[in-house]
Design a protein that fits this description.
mainly alpha; 4-stranded mixed beta sheet; 4 strands; globular; binds zinc ion
Length: 418
């Protein structure tokens, strides 16, 4: 009883602390952007017009306000599920079907996710068709939006339900050490998805065509040669179907990889700038950032499963979070709802770690390509994404996975001078 009380109150306390910190950081950021709205930072004076700078400020502020509204809404849903008996009501309902534990779990999950999708629909619609639309980024039509949603549901069902059934089976059948097996199974599954995603899943949502012959291709091939990188094909993805934001990435295992450019990136950048952007991505690969990130992810999920192993067999865990009857599927749902509340304090650490990697990748690009080209690509991409050049430093330190553009450019200028 006492433990239940402690766990409930710990969750409430963390929710309050997290909410206060988030609100405080957002307010700082909004104020900082507003204060710097009237003048382009000196570093960008020649490259960014006042109009573009102000558009970025307005877009950032609009995103902050929208985020605040929907975050509050999300908090209400969370409280509804846990503190006002939402999960308990749904659980009582699915138990009336009198199925075995795995089927009951699948029905529970199906309904839970469906309810979640309906509740999150306003945010998706507002963000895509109002916020992004207002600033000219949205390319998604109503039709694409609906088709994407249907594809997402089908894909989620085809992949998610068997996966969930397997984990529920492991939880019920493999005794006290089930969580180690479940972790191993999920880790193997993630590796398979990483392999299968570019081949089978991404083509469901986008079209991939081979990069045309020409200056960009020649420049890119020369860079790959210089970096001793074997590519398994250069592709262009029709990202412009959905958004005007630009990007480049590559996928695959081992030494050979598919390199994918967003068509939006190729439209906006010169061959030299594309080369510099790709060199940055190659830097991530060469410095083993991708492998390191995966290793860290798997370690963290191992710890997560150990905690889940404890929670699953502890009545306190259910009672403290508004559920009367323990079950495998309920343990999973509760854990996935609550873990982010406890993990909030990890955000600045992982953001910092990611920024260290960005600097290293920029250094690599400066060495094998050209730092001036990367700077001019960054400025262009920043303009197109309308990210603010003047975020609050505390906010940026807490959340940003990439250093703010002025910081990154200053770093590149220094490393280019070496
Ligand atoms: Zn990067």
């Amino acid at each position: 009883m006492k433990d239940t009380y402690i766990l409930t109150n710990l969750l409430i306390a963390l929710l309050v602390i997290n909410t206060v910190i988030k609100a405080w950081l957002e307010k700082r950021n909004r104020d900082h952007i507003r204060e710097n709205r009237s003048e382009v930072p000196a570093l960008f004076a020649e490259k960014v017009t006042l109009e573009e700078h102000q558009k970025a400020a307005d877009y950032s502020i609009a995103k902050i306000i929208t985020g605040k509204v929907f975050r509050t809404f999300g908090l209400i849903i969370f409280v509804g599920w846990i503190f006002f008996g939402g999960l308990e009501v749904l659980d009582t309902f699915v138990r009336t079907f009198e199925q075995g534990p795995i089927v009951t779990g699948l029905i529970f999950y199906g309904l839970y996710i469906l309810v979640g999708m309906v509740l999150e629909l306003p945010e998706g619609i507002y963000t895509t068709f109002f916020l992004e639309e207002r600033f000219g980024f949205n390319k998604t039509t109503g039709k694409t939006f609906v088709i994407d949603m249907i594809k997402g549901i089908v894909l989620g069902a085809v992949i998610g339900l068997p996966l969930l059934a397997a984990i529920l089976w492991i939880m019920g059948a493999l005794g006290n050490t089930w969580w180690i097996w479940a972790w191993a199974f999920l880790t193997a599954f993630q590796l398979v998805i990483t392999w299968a995603y570019p081949r089978f899943i991404a083509p469901i949502f986008n079209k991939f065509t081979e990069l045309e012959e020409g200056e960009v291709k020649d420049t890119v091939l020369a860079l790959l040669n210089r970096c001793d990188f074997v590519s398994k094909g250069l592709f262009v993805m029709d990202a412009s179907k959905r958004s005007a934001h630009g990007n480049a990435y590559f996928t695959g295992f081992g030494k050979s990889k598919r390199i994918v450019f967003f068509d939006t990136l190729l439209e906006k950048l010169t061959a030299g700038e594309v080369e510099a952007v790709l060199a940055h991505e190659l830097g991530h690969f060469k410095k083993k950032h991708i492998v390191k990130k995966m290793a860290m992810l798997f370690t963290m999920s191992f710890v997560g499963f150990a905690v889940l192993g404890w929670a699953y067999s502890s009545e306190v865990f259910y009672h403290a979070h508004g559920v009367s009857t323990p079950s495998a599927y309920m343990a999973l749902i509760l854990f996935s709802l609550i873990a982010p509340v406890y993990m909030f304090f990890v955000t600045p650490i992982s953001a910092w770690h990611s920024r260290v990697h960005e600097f290293e990748a920029d250094d690599y690009a400066a060495e094998y390509s050209n730092s001036e080209e990367l700077i001019s690509a960054l400025v262009k991409l920043h303009k197109d994404n309308a990210s603010t050049l003047t975020p609050d430093p505390v906010y940026a330190n807490f959340y940003y996975s990439h250093p703010p553009a002025p910081v990154r450019i200053t770093h590149l200028k220094n490393s280019g001078a070496n």
